[in-house]
Design brief:
mainly beta; three-stranded antiparallel β-sheet; 0% helix; globular; binds zinc ion
């Protein structure tokens, strides 16, 4: 299963979640406020995140999410 970045539309929490191919975005539940309706961030999926390359922090991921 691919892992995607999501942002909660209710509280703004950003989180990673493994999502099955049959699941739709509106089924994604925020782990912070437990509300559905999170928004998928259109980043490259973090299928393999083994390399912690600091040069990879460009794009739509906020650097604070790595702290
Ligand atoms: Zn939330």
């Amino acid at each position: 299963m691919p892992m995607y970045d999501y942002k909660c539309n209710s509280c703004g929490n950003k989180f990673d979640k493994l999502v099955s191919f049959s699941a739709s975005d509106k089924d994604i539940e925020c782990p912070k406020c437990n509300k559905n309706g999170s928004e998928k961030l259109l980043c490259a999926p973090n299928i393999s995140n083994g390399a912690s390359n600091s040069n990879m922090q460009s794009g739509c991921n906020a650097p604070s999410s790595f702290s």
